[in-house]
Amino acid sequence: MTPIDWAAIFEHGDRRAPLPEGLLTAVSASVTTPLDPEEVRALAAENAPDPGRWEFPAHPLPASYLAFLAWSNGGGFVNGDREFQMLAAEELREYMLTYRLPYHLPGTVPFALDGEGGFYLFDLRHPPDAAGESPVLYAGTGGLGFDSAVEVGRSFVEACRGRTDPRDRPQDPA
Question: Which of 32, 69, 112, 145 is 20 to 30 A from 101 (CA-CA)?
Answer without folding.
Answer: 69
